[in-house]
Amino acid sequence: MSETKAKILVIDDEPDIVELLSMSLESMGMEPAGAGSVREGRQLIESFTPDMCLTDLRLPDGDGLEIVKYIAENHPDMPVAVISAHGNMELAIECLKAGAFDFLTKPVNLENLKNVVSGALKIATHPATQDKRTRTILLGDSEQMCRIRGLIPKLARSQAPVYISGESGTGKEMIARLIHQKGPRADQPFIPVNCGAIPDELMESEFFGHKKGSFTGAVADKAGLFQAADGGTLFLDEVADLPLHMQTKLLRVIQEKAVKPIGAEREIPVDVRILSATHKNLAELVEKDKFRQDLFYRINVIDITAPPLRQRDGDLPILIEYFLRQIAESMGEPVAKLTPAAREMLLQHSYPGNIRELQNILERATTLCVDNVIDADDLSLTSAASTANQKITSRLENETLEEYLARMEKDAILAALEKTRFNRTAAAKELGVTFRALRYKLEKLEIDLD
Fold first, then answer.
1. Those residues with Cβ within 8 angstroms of residue 144's Cβ, 6 or more apart along the chain or in another chain
2. Structurally, what CATH architecture does the domain formed by 310-379 represent?
3. Domain at 134-307, CATH from 3.40.50.1820, 3.30.70.100, 3.40.50.300, 3.90.1150.10
4. Can you give the pLDDT at residue 3?
5. What pLDDT, in 10s, does the model give residues 199-255?
6. Are 186 and 229 in contact, with CB atoms under 8 Å apart?
């Protein structure tokens, strides 16, 4: 398409809109064609053979969903974007689920139109291929991991929001990065943000930016995370921790594709794909009115689950060998050997902390082992539940259950802080809690870091 003009089909029953979009596309160096119905749109898809299709949702003889499904069945490599009025967002989401590349809201912002069309044409120029290197990044031969690896190229082709659920330590951010790297935004920024690590009072400024003098301490203009991710992907980790007022603002940004920095007079268009994740049950939080239902449906257009390690049959030996090699390379040492007892203990452990826990266990064991041989004692794992019960019982003889649990909690927090060099944000992530929760625990347990 470097010498030939890209052909864009516009389907809308309002001739003025078709004309306006066609003029805009021509100014972008495209060759547009217009249709006013589902039937006419199907005919032009076959005769005009467009590189991309833009379709309105409401048409006189059907709706845009029919166009999306027709293209998905007959021309799966042709990107299609839907044009939605504000009252049609539910149907727009259905179109995204059915395979639409992206959506635009009326009145169509010309900057957003340019971003959507250019992104779609990148996809049309480079059809999806299964990248075998994904297998060396997202390790495992279990059915769950094979399914996820197969999904990633398909998810990468769309601009629809993806919601990644799963327990802490299951590799949700790695999945998000791969979706970004396999798509048309790969050469643009991937910005991860832990939603639970930003204090409430700074959240709006962090996400949307601010203008100089807009509040006390705003000594200069500051771009927000959405602007930093412009053209690329914004990964909202622990999205369940967003307070309700920020959920409302986030929903508007996703729908309008624009942000308004604090103190600014006008909104700024942004071209950002949203990927989100949390270890919490968002559906339950919606039922309890702790998470907005409309935002849940908007970010949960496509969902994918990162399985816990205990459910990934056969993957554990592969991961053990991978991490041992990785640790050896980072230390400049030969790969450590596991005794049969150590290997058996690793295979029997339940890994409540999932892949992150396995990696930490092997790093610690490699450091503690003698002659580069890891024995069961080097793993620092409890071999049986009865042993743990005996230790707890003996300790409870000298302290109450409440005192014992508080001490265990304090030890875990101090260990995480020491591991992260007393970086509170990183420690909170290591513990699987929000920054605010960690701050509360530090005060409650009288842990003074100042």
1. 307, 311, 312
2. Orthogonal Bundle (1.10)
3. 3.40.50.300
4. 60
5. 888 899 999 998 888 887 777 888 899 999 999 999 999 999 999 999 999 999 998
6. no
Q: In CATH terms, are 134-307 and 310-379 the same topology?
A: no
Q: Locate the domains of the chain by residue range.
A: 7-125, 134-307, 310-379, 396-444
pLDDT at 450: 60
C-beta contacts of 390-399 below 8 A and 24+ residues apart: none
pLDDT at 407: 75
Domain 7-125 belongs to what architecture? 3-Layer(aba) Sandwich (3.40)
- What is residue 132's predicted lDDT score, i.e. its pLDDT? 46
Q: Are 166 and 312 in contact (CB under 8 A)?
A: no
Write out the two tokens for 26.
């021509």
Residues of the chain below pLDDT 50? 1-2, 128-133, 383-396
Q: Does the pTM of the predicted model rise above 0.70? A: yes
Quote the pLDDT of residue 369. 86
pLDDT at res. 114: 92
Superfamily the domain 396-444 falls into? Homeodomain-like (1.10.10.60)
Check residue 251 and give its pLDDT. Answer: 93
| SS3 assignment for the chain | CCCCCCEEEEECCCHHHHHHHHHHHHHCCCEEEEECCHHHHHHHHHHCCCCEEEEECEECCEEHHHHHHHHHHHCCCCCEEEEECHHHHHHHHHHHHHCCCEEEECCCCHHHHHHHHHHHHHHHHCCCCCCCCHHHHCCCCCHHHHHHHHHHHHHHHCCCCEEEECCCCCCHHHHHHHHHHCCCCCCCCEEEEEHHHCCHHHHHHHHHCECCCCCCCCCCCECCHHHHCCCCEEEEECHHHCCHHHHHHHHHHHHHCEECCECCCCCEECCCEEEEEECCCHHHHHHCCCCCHHHHHHHCCEEEECCCHHHCCCHHHHHHHHHHHHHHHHHCCCCCEECHHHHHHHHHCCCCCHHHHHHHHHHHHHHHCECCEECHHHHCCCCCHHHHHHHHHHHHCCCCHHHHHHHHHHHHHHHHHHHCCCCHHHHHHHHCCCHHHHHHHHHHCCCCCC
Q: How far is CA 445 from CA 146, 379, 392, in A?
A: 44, 29, 20
pLDDT, position 138: 85
Tokens, residue 8: 């864009």
The pLDDT value recorded for residue 200 is: 86
